[in-house]
Amino acid sequence: MKTEHSPGIMASGTLVVLMLILSCTFLAPSRALAQSVASEPPSSISSFAPAATTGPPVRIKDIARVLGVRSNQLMGYGLVIGLNGTGDSRQAIFTTQAVSNMLVHFGISVDSQEIRLRNVAGVMVTCDLPPFVKNGDRVDVVVSSLGDARSLEGGMLLLTQLQGPDGKVYAVAQGPVSIGGRGGPGMRSNSNFPTVGRIPEGAIIEREVPATFADASTGTLSVTLNQPDFTTASRVAGAINTRFGEGMASAIDGATVRVKIPRDYSHDTVGLIAAIEELTVNADTTAKVAINERTGTVVIGGNVCLLPAAVAHGSLRVQVGGGGAVATGAPATGAAAAALSIIPGGTVDTLVSALNAIGASPRDIIAILQALKSAGSLLAEVEIL
User: Fold this and answer.
1) Strand ranges inside 117-213, DSSP E
2) 106-129: per-residue pLDDT in tens?
3) 95 in Cβ contact with 120 (< 8 Å)
4) Whole-angstrom Cα distance, residue 336 to residue 354?
5) Residue 215 gets which letter from DSSP?
6) Mean pLDDT over residues 20-39, rounded?
7) Pairing relation of β-strands 72-81 and 196-205?
8) pTM, two decimal places
9) Distance between CA atoms of 260 and 222, rounded to whole angstroms?
């Protein structure tokens, strides 16, 4: 008696056989791939790392400066007079001594112990001396109270010598002190800091500071990046070589590019610098997350990525990786727990948005980011402001 097989059973058996064949076909390469990934060095996780934070082309002059071209700081001690009873008290003995010494220059001898003034304040005057300023140029100065004066409003700074670190006088300052505009209606004070003021163009330059930006012995000059980065330094050197010829520039470290002065510019170094400054490059920066714990501010630079991790912070649960990144927790309103999904390998920006959506406080978000950094999931530098 011939046994007949059911067509349905036959089809099912064939399907099972086909599935086994396919599974063997695809599982073997998958295992091999898993083994190859596991055997690769840590640098193989670059696929999870944030893409190079390359912005639009920028001029070299906006991201770098020529070595030797710099500002200098000046300072001096002076007196602000004409205050409406808001000056230093007798406790500030340096103020009465300074007034006594000043009056001696005008032929008036007064014992500093007998001076009782409330309309004078001893101050420190500071300013930045920009490069290439000439005699007679003017710069702004900042005037700051040194004693117990309550306000510098309405005061006049007497002639004050401003010295550099070498003790030489480079500028003199004098003029009316401005502490800013008055507050609006309802404000308790007219100025947040009445003991600090400015004098726009209050200092006159008396001595120039020579700037040497080209090394005559080697015939080179150096370009220094404002934000050191090996990639950007290499690109700057490449842009200069493309413009002036191969071998004219070389990056000696992550911040400095040394440039040979071509013969055509041997007597026109300024023209060479101007030409270099106008070249454009794609600046690269390291992924960074800046956190201000006092204000609860989180600033995320570029697409900062996350590796798989799980964080438990109070009632909040954050899981990144696997089937996706999930943030759960009770919203600030006290409603039922909420759950949000984030794409696998999501960015910090996406995570912060998700945490905000479930009502996480700024302090919670900062704590979670710090925990992810400690666990190695946050692929960025974390800077606490």
Assistant:
1) 120-129, 138-145, 156-163, 169-176, 196-205
2) 888 888 777 888 899 999 999 999
3) yes
4) 16
5) B
6) 34
7) unpaired
8) 0.68
9) 9
Render pLDDT for 234-243 as a digit per residue (tens, 0 to 9): 999 999 999 9
| Chain segment 267-295, per-residue pLDDT in tens | 999 999 999 999 999 988 888 888 887 77
* Distances 221 to 91, 211, 214, 248, 252 between C-alpha atoms, Å: 53, 13, 5, 11, 12
Note every long-range contact of 21-30, with CB atoms under 8 Å and residues 24 or more positions apart, other chains counting. none
Beta-bridged to residue 347, according to DSSP, are 305
Question: Residue 302 — very low, low, confident or very high, per pLDDT cuts 50/70/90?
Answer: low
pLDDT class for 91, splitting at 50, 70, 90?
confident
Q: In whole angstroms, how far apart are CA 182 and each of 142, 143, 153, 178, 353?
A: 19, 18, 11, 11, 39
CB 382 within 8 A of CB 289: yes
Kindly calculate the radius of gyration of the chain based on its CA atoms and give it in whole angstroms.
34
Question: Which amino acid is present at 369?
Answer: L
| β-bridge partners, 178 | 198
Tell me, what's the pLDDT at 55? 63
CB 195 within 8 A of CB 206: no
Residues facing 342 on adjacent strands: 325
- Residue 140 is which amino acid? D
Contacts of 350 (CB under 8 A, 6+ apart): 325, 342, 343
Task: State how far the Cα of 377 lies from the Cα of 355, in Å rounded to an integer.
Answer: 17
Q: Report, as an integer, the average pLDDT of 74-87.
A: 95
State the DSSP H helix or E strand holding residue 369, giving kind and residue range, or none if neither: helix 362-374
CA 90 to chain centre: 43
Identity at 209, one-letter amino acid code: V
How far apart (Å, rounded) are the C-alpha atoms in residues 287 and 382? 9
- Check if the beta carbon of residue 112 is closer than 8 Å to that of residue 97: yes
Spatial CA neighbour of 143 closest among 164, 161, 122: 122
